[in-house]
Specification:
The protein is an all-alpha fold and about 280 residues long. It is about 70% helix and about 0% strand.
Amino acid sequence: MEPLIICLWILAIACAGTWVLSLITREHSWVDRIWSIVPVVYVWVFAGAAGLADARLDLVAVLVTLWGARLTFNFARKGGYAPGGEDYRWETLRGRMSAGLFQVFNLFFIVIYQNILLLLIALPAWTAYQHRTPLTALDVILAAVFLAFLTGETIADQQQWRFHQWKKAEVAAGRQPSPRFLQTGLFRFSRHPNFFFEQAQWWVVFLFACVAAGSLLQWTVIGPLLLTGLFIGSTVFTESITRSRYPEYAEYQARTSPVVPWFPGRGNTARMWSESR
């Protein structure tokens, strides 16, 4: 069976499974729970279809597996797989929609759209499968860049984890945490460094396909493009919630790049996106 057909079957099962589970449990983070797993499976399907004999596909599969392992670990330690581990943003959104409208949103956006996106970001592996050319120095450079981004995301998540553990301890001791949100380390240069590194890794995966095909003009660019679009929307929504909780967050926004790490300070001109206020 063609590897793409296998991936489409996996996609259908993932959509059905996450939708049914959301109805049964009334939690809507089931796609989040497979986010770090399903793309790994898709990439290995293409590597396996090549008989694990294509060095580029094998390399991409290993790199994506490292991405998935790191993300799975970080999601698990935050309680994402535990009962009640739903993303707080879905609860907020439910409060802004009627029950019926939210169920439509759940089916078409949370379940169908996001599951399709998880396949699309992995489809550069299909391009590499169709163009099985020898590994080059560019592939080695891309692998090094991917690992650098993976390291950056690991550091950002660890800094965030330590901050929130400290914050919980302060609250448990009856003290008011100050500051109330993370502004140091990598978060001094970007409000969302983990978002930046996450997207960057999938752009690198796309570039592996470009090297295989010998051209940047590949339709599978739709995967990282849509992923970036999703993160834009997620960032705007997340920050609207944060601003409502912490008025001082506006000052942090004024001096810190939204996503792309850059030197802090007012008049920052190297921002990836303009402020949405």
